[in-house]
Amino acid sequence: MKITEYVETLAREGELLADQAEQAGVDALVPTCPEWRVADLLRHTGSVHRWAAGYVRDGLVEPVPFPQPPELAGAELLAWFRTGHAELVRTLAEAPAELVCWTFLPTAPPSPVAFWARRQAHETTVHRFDAESARGVAFSAVTPEFAEDGVDELLTGFHARPRSRVRTEEPRVLRIRAADTGAAWTLHLSKEPVRTVRGDTGEEADCEIVEEASWLYAALWNRVPLAGPCVRGDASLARLWQETAGI
């Protein structure tokens, strides 16, 4: 996906998140994040937006502390969220292509602007799911291409890091397959961090999960149960994912 497509998605998803949060009310519980209310969701995502914008705006090349959100509530909290989101969109849209700044995933795109545009588009979309869950409505659709990209970022980026808790005592193979786009990922599980290979390696999988990309996107980010007829083989690996894969 192009940087402009990520920025357009970020703009749309942030506006939708704010609208859904306003309709739910800041005191509503967030079922997909059981310890949160909508106010916590807004504070977290609004702080992430400001944190990300700082790297791009200021060209920061070292990690900085995560900002603490203000103690706002109601309409003031929503306005604060919208302001930070709009600033992030502007910052990414105006960033020079040659920008150098800090990034944090091992499979990050070579362009830091592409990295942050991609990361914040997915960050905001997943948390838009959370805002919709607070209203008790079905998640709004994402395109298969964007969903596939988000699954790839999660599997080859986040879970390639040493902090990933998805571990098994004995080597196991988990395969993820998007039924609509044809994309596949082969995950080698062990006592070490997950080693993900893009594609079907041809080796026998202990468990294979086959579904449309948009469902995989929500399920692998633990926004819907990773269960059902799409899970083939050893379902304990799907349960392991749900129990340990939280970011």
With helices defined by DSSP (H or I, 4 residues minimum), what is the helix count?
7
Mean pLDDT: 96
Which class of secondary structure composition applies to the elements?
alpha+beta
Strand residues, percent: 5-15%
Features:
globular; alpha+beta; 247 residues
Question: Can you walk me through this structure?
Answer:
- By secondary structure, this protein is an alpha+beta fold.
- It has helices at residues 3-24, 38-58, 74-94, 112-135, 144-157, 213-220, 236-244; strands spanning 172-178, 184-189, 195-198, 207-211, 231-233.
- It has a 5-stranded mixed β-sheet with strand order 3-2-1-4-5.
- The longest helix has 24 residues, at 112-135.
- The chain is globular, with a radius of gyration of 18 Å.
- The two termini are 23 Å apart.
- The model has no long low-confidence stretch (mean pLDDT 96).
How is the topology of this model organized?
Blueprint (H helix, E strand, L loop, with lengths): L2 H22 L13 H21 L15 H21 L17 H24 L8 H14 L14 E7 L5 E6 L5 E4 L8 E5 L1 H8 L10 E3 L2 H9 L3
Parallel strand pairs: 1-4
Antiparallel strand pairs: 1-2, 2-3, 4-5
Helix pairs in contact: 1-3, 1-4, 2-3, 2-4, 5-6
How do you describe this structure in short?
This protein has helices at 3-24, 38-58, 74-94, 112-135, 144-157, 213-220, 236-244, and strands spanning 172-178, 184-189, 195-198, 207-211, 231-233. The chain is of the alpha+beta class and 247 residues long.
